[in-house]
Amino acid sequence: MGSSSPVEQVTGLLLLACACVSVLTTVGIVAVLLTESADFFAVVPLRRILLDTQWTPLFADQHFGIWPLVGGTLLTTACAMVVAIPLGVASAVYLAEFASPPVRRALKSLLELLASVPTVAFGYFALMMVTPTLQQLLPGVSSFNALGAGLMMGVMILPIIASLSEDAVFAVPSSLREGSYALGAGRVATIFRVVLPSAASGIAAAIILGISRAVGETMIVAIAAGQQPQLTADPRQAVETMTAYMAKVSMGDTPAGTLEYRTIFAVGLCLFTMTLALNLVAHHLRRRVLKGTMG
Amino acid sequence: MTMSVSRSAVMARAATLRPTRPSFAWTGEDSLRVACATALMLPLLLLAVFFGAALLDAWPRLNLTFLTSMPSRVAEDAGILPALAGTAWLLVLTALLAIPLGVGAAVYLEEYARPGRMTRLIEVNISNLAGVPSIIYGLLALEVFVRAAGMGRSVLAGACTLALLLLPVVITATREALRTVPTTLREAALGLGAERWQVMWRVVLPMSLPGIITGVVLSLSRAVGETAPLIMVGALGYVAFVPTSVQSAFTALPIQIFNWISRPQAAFHSNAAAAMVVLLLLMLALNALAMLVRRRVQRAAAH
Q1: CA distance A206 to B128
Q2: Which residues pair with A55 in a beta bridge?
Q3: Residues on chain A touching B135 (C-beta within 8 angstroms)
Q4: B135 touches chain A (CB under 8 A)
Q5: What percent of chain A stands above pLDDT 70?
C-alpha cells in the first residue's frame, strides 16, 4: 500500500465512504427512532403504553395503549400467513421437485414479476375486489377489514416464501432422495419424510422473513384494513396496524415536535424492533442451513 | 461443497431408480403434483383476473387527456400529469444518487476491502438494511432530510429516501456483476503495471457494466412503485403543478393512486385503476429494458 499513488489512495477512500453510507443509514435509523421515542417516553411512561388497551393519541382523551396497533398488525399478518405458508411451500415443492427445467424457469420469472407488483396495487385489489367477494361469502364483513387486506398481503408475500423455500428444498442433497428411493419409498413419502424435514430450517427462515415483510407492509393495510385501532381477533372487522397508523399521522397535518407527532417514532421503534428480531432469527436459521450443507 | 451433478441428471437417475408403475394409474404422486401446481398457479390466475377487472374499469379513462391533465375535483376531468412528472423527477434523482453510492460501495467490498471486522460489519449491515420496512426509511428521511437538512417536503427529499432504500439492492446486484469478471483479467492488467483504480476503470467496470445496468434498472422499477416512504416524507395527495426544481413539492403515481382509492366515489376509483395501469406499464417498460440489456449481453458473450 505504501507505494500506491495519490489517485489510488483517494479512490480507495471515496469507495470506503460510499460503503459507509449504508452503515450511517443504520446508525441514523436507530438514532432517530431512539431520540424521538425517548422524548415520547419522557412524557408517557411505559406503564401507560403497555397497561392500556386503547390507542387514541389524536383524541382529546389521549390513551397510548399500543396493543390495539400490535394486535391489528398480528391479525393481518396471521391472515396473510394462512395464505402464504401453504401456497408458498407447495409452490416451492412443485418448482424444486416436479417442474421440468423450462417450466421451472418460466414459473420463477412469473413469481419475480409477481414480487415486483407495487403494494399500492395489491391494496387496490384488496379493497375493490377481495372485500366485496368476502362480503358476499361471509356475513358481517365490514368494508374495511383485516381479512381482505391480510389475504392480499399473503399473495404479496407468496413469492418470497416460495423462492426462499425452493432454495432450501433444492439444497437437499440428492443422495438423501436416492437413499430414500433405494429403501423402497415412493416419491410422495420421500418428499414428506425426507426432503421437507431436511429443508425445515430453510423453510422456517423463509416463513419468518415472510412474516417480517407482512409486519412492515404499509400500503395494503392502509388502504384496505381500516383505521380503527381496536383489539379484536375477528378478521372481518376493521383494524389499524402500526404501519397504517404511521401513514395516517404523517398524511394529516400534525405539527413536528408535538406529542402526537412523536407517537409515530415510538410506534416505528416498536415496528423496527419486531422486524429486526424476526430478521435475525431468520438469518441465524439460514446460516445453520449453510453450515449444514458444508458438513 | 460442490454440486457438480446437474439437477436434471439427478432427476433422470432418480426416475430410473423408482419402482416402475403402469402409466395410466392415478397415484398419490400425481395428486401431490397437481396440488402443488395448483397452489402455484391459483394466486397468479387470481391476480390475472383482478388485473383484467381493473383494466376494464380503467379503460374509458385511459387516453391522452388523462396523461396530460391536472388533478381535479371532478373525477372525469382529473389527470395524472403532476404525478407522472413527479415520478420522473424521482426516478432521475434517485438514479443519480443511488448509482454512484451503490456501485462505489460494491466496488469497495468486492475489490478493495480486506477481509476483517470492518468489512464484515458493512456486509452484515447491508443484509440487515434490506430487511428494514420501507416506512422506517420514511421516518429517518422525515427527521434527517426533511427537517435537519432543511430540504422540506421536496422532491429531493423523496429521492434521497428512495436512494437509501435502493442501496442494498444496487450494491448486491453490482457485486454479482463484478464477480463475473474473471480474476485473470485483473491480474493481467495489474501485471502490465496498472494501478487498482485503473484496473477498475478500464477493465472491471466496462466488463461488468451490462450486469450493473440490469440490476440498477430493476431496482429503479421497484422504486417507482414505492409509496409508504414517500407518504412519510410528505408527498402530497393533491398537486396541481409540475415540479420545476429539486425543491418543489411533489406527488408521485403511487401516491396519486392511494389518494384516489381513499375517496368514496366510484368515479375516482376508476381513475385509480387507470393510474395503476399506467404505473404497471411504466414498471413493465423498465423491466423489459433490463431484460433487453441482459439478453444483448448474453448474446454478445456467446459470440
Answers
A1: 15
A2: A64
A3: 216, 218, 243, 246-247, 268, 271
A4: yes
A5: 97
Q: Give backbone dihedrals phi and psi of A64, rounded to 5 degrees, phi first.
A: -125, 30
- By the 8 A CB rule, do A22 and B125 touch? yes
pLDDT digits (tens, 9 = 90+) for B61-106: 888 888 888 888 888 888 899 999 999 999 999 999 999 999 999 9
Q: Does A275 touch chain B (CB under 8 A)?
A: yes
Q: Span B217-231, mean pLDDT?
A: 91
Instruction: Give the separation between CA A272 and CA A36, rounded to whole angstroms.
Output: 14
Fill in the DSSP letter of residue B77.
G
B108 part of contact set with chain A, CB < 8 Å: yes
d(CA B38, CA B48): 15
Q: What are phi and psi of A161, to 5 degrees?
A: -65, -40
Q: Are A86 and A155 in contact (CB under 8 A)?
A: no
Reference B128, options A241, A27, A119, A115; nearest CA is A27
Whole-angstrom distance, CA of residue A71 vs CA of residue A242: 9
Q: Which of B236, B251, B225 is nearest to B85 (CA)?
A: B251
Q: How many CB pairs under 8 A join A and B?
A: 257
Q: In the numeric block, which cell numbers belong to residue B22?
A: 403402469
CA distance B253 to B66: 13
Q: Which amino acid is at B258?
A: F
Classified as helix, coil or strand, B257 is helix
Cell numbers linked to B300: 454478445
d(CA A236, CA A130): 12
Query: Closest partner residue to B139 among A18, A155, A264, by Cβ?
Result: A264
CA dist B165 and A149 (Å) reads 24
What b/e readout covers B142-168, taking b as 16+ CB neighbours within 10 angstroms?
bbbbbeeeebebbbbbbbbbbbbbbbb
- φ, ψ (nearest 5 deg) of residue A145: -150, 155
DSSP-derived secondary structure letter, B148: I
CA atoms within 13 A on the CB side of B281: 10
Rounded to the nearest integer, the mean pLDDT of chain A is: 90
The SS3 call for residue B62 is coil
Q: Is A273 exposed, middle or buried (0-12, 13-18, 19+ CB in 10 A)?
A: exposed
Residue in the block written with cell 424492533: A273
B14 contact residues in A (CB cutoff 8 A): 174, 177-178, 181
